[in-house]
Amino acid sequence: MIRPESWPNEKRIPARDDHIMRRPVVGIIGNSHRIENRFPVQAVGERNLRAVSEVSGAIPLMFPSIPEITDVGALLDLVDGVVLTGARANVHPTRFNVDPCEKHEPYDVHRDDVALAVAEACVVRGVPLFGICRGLQEMNVAFGGSLHPEIRELPGRMNHRMPRLENGDIHPDPKVIFADRHEVRLTPGGAFARILGCETIRVNSLHGQGILEPGRRVVIEGVAEDGTIEAIRIADAPSFALGVQWHAEYDPQKNPINRALFEAFGQALVEYRRAI
How far is C-alpha 57 from the geometric centre of its chain's CA atoms? Predict the structure, then answer.
């Protein structure tokens, strides 16, 4: 009998625990949707998947925002980093001791359960964490901060929601929706300024909620022209723990600002993988 070890031209497949050879794996949180208004699904925008794969150099792996089937500890045992993406649903106001209001729906309390636990656990374990739009808001709430349901309702603030046509419909052109709309001033010498090599950037804007009171350990590193908090880091986090209010996943293949962020996240993944 010919043993497998003696097969000619055998190509050995590296073991799964070979942390030197394999690409990092990034867990990307899913969002609840319904197909045909009947079938519940979990979904992740393709731009998030491509940004992680093409720019961060990692393998994207969606995990569900369903607390009954998502074991946060087991999840973090499997991945080298986490992305908390943007989403249409707002963080439920009871998470920061405010009564809910119908006009600020939809909410997604199940994603709240998972995302807030993941954000805190990532920082405790030193797992690289990148929060985008709602993800930034979740990071803030996870550390005891609060949100305003409609930033545009605050005196002196601009409308940060996506552009619409005169009839109220969402603009059909993604290039218009995701166009840079305002400046962000970065903290001199801060993490973002070091990564991006500058202290002023321009970004897109597609959100209603925004940070009202920063949570404990939440360090403000970027502020829009109207005072809206746009970039944060978690103080004393062992690894990458940054959040942005804009949609950095839209165009990091071409946009130098967003590319630099996803590349820095990718480098943090490699460093984390080597350390474990």
Answer: 16
AA letter at 79: V
The answer to whether the bond into 256 is cis (omega within 30° of 0) is: no
Name which residue leads in pLDDT, 92 or 82. 82
Residue in this structure with the two tokens 């992680």, named with its chain if needed: 52
- Return the percentage of the chain with pLDDT > 70, whole number: 92
Tokens of 152: 């545009």
**Residues tagged active-site:** 133, 247, 249
The predicted model scores a pTM of 0.89
Domains, in order of start, for the chain: 23-275 (3.40.50.880)
pLDDT for 9 beyond 60:
no
pLDDT band, very low/low/confident/very high, at 5 (cuts 50, 70, 90) = very low
The tens digit of pLDDT for each residue in 95-107 reads: 988 877 777 778 8
Give the separation between CA 103 and CA 90, rounded to whole angstroms. Answer: 11
pLDDT of 18 strictly over 60? no
pLDDT tens digit sequence for 153-208? 778 888 777 777 777 777 777 887 788 889 999 999 999 999 999 999 999 988 87
CA distance 149 to 151: 6
CA dist., res. 271 & res. 140, Å (int) = 25
Measuring CA to CA, which residue among 158, 265, 262 is closest to residue 210? 158
The CA-based angle 131-259-244, given to 5 degrees, is: 25
